Amino acid sequence: MIDEKILKMYKASNKFGTYLEMDLEVLKEGEAKYIIEIKEKHLATPIAAHGGVVAAVIDGTLGVAALTVAGQNDNVVSTVELHVNYLKPVRLGDVLTSVGKVVSAGKRLLYVEAAVTNQDNVLVAKASGTFNAYPAEKAFKMLEENN
Q1: In Å, what is the CA distance from 43 to each residue of 49, 54, 127, 146?
Q2: Fewer CB within 10 Å: C terminus or N terminus of the chain?
């Protein structure tokens, strides 16, 4: 069962995802999806998105997929390692869909993979990441201290 409290906290605190205008959907335990339309603010050149935008979408997708599993034990996650393969250019106006799936979940480490496609269902990036699970109370305490 996905911990709605932890997901709610994540959504409320993810200012970067809000800035990038990423739309989150939890598909099921261990699977998450982000959708983003590439706008002018995402560009590195007059027509192509910055790779960091694609990496941010991927990191978010992988992290939320991991969070749906780790949250069951009152844990949140942080990125330990992120590997991205950029396969095709991402252009102004493209609508990207990034889907992440937990492949392996241990007590402390989770391994997650993602694929990113554009509106034409063309694969533009593949990725994997490792995430550290740690007690949510640490994250909640830090959130309270900063407010």
Answers
A1: 4, 11, 21, 32
A2: C
Per-residue confidence at 55, pLDDT binned at 50, 70, 90? very high
Q: Where are the beta strands (DSSP E) in the chain?
A: 23-28, 31-37, 75-86, 95-105, 109-117, 123-135
Eight-class DSSP state of 46: S
Task: Count CA within 13 A, CB hemisphere, residue 3.
Answer: 17
Total structural domains within the chain? 1
Write the CB contacts of 108 (distance below 8 Å, at least 6 apart in sequence): 132, 133, 134
How many CB atoms sit inside 10 A of residue 137's CB? Answer: 11
Neighbours of 22 (CB within 10 A): 20
CATH number for the domain harbouring residue 32: 3.10.129.10
Total residues belonging to the chain: 147
Tokens 């250019």, residue?
89
105 assigned to some structural domain: yes
Residue 78, in any domain of the structure: yes
Is the full-model pTM beyond 0.70?
yes
Question: Domain containing 77: what range?
Answer: 4-139
- What distance in Å separates the CA atoms of residue 117 and residue 138, rounded to the nearest whole number? 35
Please report where in the chains the tokens 């995802």 appear, as a residue. 17
